[in-house]
Amino acid sequence: MKERIIVFLLILIVVSSCRKEKTQTIPDEFVSFVDGFFEEAFNRNVDLNLSDFNLEIKLEDIQDHAGTCNTRNSVIRIDEETWLNIDDQQKEWLIYHELGHCILERSHNNNKASNGECLSFMNEQMSNPDCSSNLYSVMWRDYYLDELFNDCQELPDWYSTNQEYVDNGNRIYQVDTTVTATGFGDLVEFDLNKNFVIEFEFFNWTEVADFISILWGNNNSFSFCKTCIQNNLSISLNQKTIYYNSDVENIGDNSKLTIKKINDRHLFFFNEQFVHTFEYTEWENNSFGTIIWAEEIGTEITMDIKVYILE
Ligand SMILES: [Zn+2]
């Protein structure tokens, strides 16, 4: 009888210790992202330790998804082809998103701001057609990480500051040019360190062209596409899309695209309505210009370009 009890106890101990043992199987390419996730939690006073969770990450061929999390067995599967073709910011988003499911037990949230920005890190897709997330902005990344670990997080104050178009009459006239051109380029002759406004107004363009875009610095653009069914208003930085909105209408035949720099931020306006904002980044070169797409080669549109320094 005594022996039986001992055997039974031993079995109990083995079984219960097996239950407690958590295992993690994380291939090398994912280690820095998983470590980063727990560091970001720590930075936000969220007490999470990898050793307290079962977690397995697999690189596989998955149909239709960039990644999945099975919350029942804590297995994350990442699509190999997707992984090979995305940049570090997208890799971080993908791994953190799946850990949001598997570790934080969060589900999807596709809520968006009135200008189309995704409000949640846990929005459904990396290139979500329903809302846009700026993965390349430090300010937006901070907000999204705050929201990942605290789903009650609200949009930060910097987002709602300076959304009004008028600047209290403190514009100092600098340049005012009317050009007629299919495409236009010029060099900046004002101090980019100062706060400024650049307005491009395109006149009577909707009958002759499909797309208007203003360019600044290297490979950055702010565009409105009349005929695009999706994402007709978009912003790209270094040729990466950082903002899109499929729900913007142009009213009338004229359109105005505006970029402002106010202190540490870029702000974008379409027809004097606030569109999007993120931190001011160096232009890399001092050029600005426009591109117009039209069916007929050589189509010209009259533009009015105004540059102001804000003081
Ligand atoms: Zn998901």
Question: What does this entry look like structurally?
Answer:
The chain has 311 residues and is an alpha+beta fold. The chain has two domains: 22-158, Zincin-like; 171-310, Jelly Rolls (Sandwich). The protein is built from six helices and 16 strands. The strands form three sheets. A six-stranded antiparallel beta sheet has the order 5-16-7-12-13-14. Strands 6-15-8-9-10-11 form a six-stranded antiparallel beta sheet, with no helix packed on it. A hairpin with a 2-residue loop joins strand 10 and strand 11. Helix 2 (28-43) packs across helix 4 (88-102). The chain is elongated.
Topology overview:
Elements (H helix, E strand, L loop, with lengths): L1 H19 L3 E2 L2 H16 L11 E6 L6 E4 L4 E5 H6 L2 H15 L35 H12 L7 H4 L10 E11 L1 E5 L8 E8 L7 E6 L3 E6 L7 E5 L2 E6 L9 E8 L2 E6 L2 E7 L7 E7 L7 E10 L1
Helix pairs in contact: 2-4
Bound molecules: zinc ion.
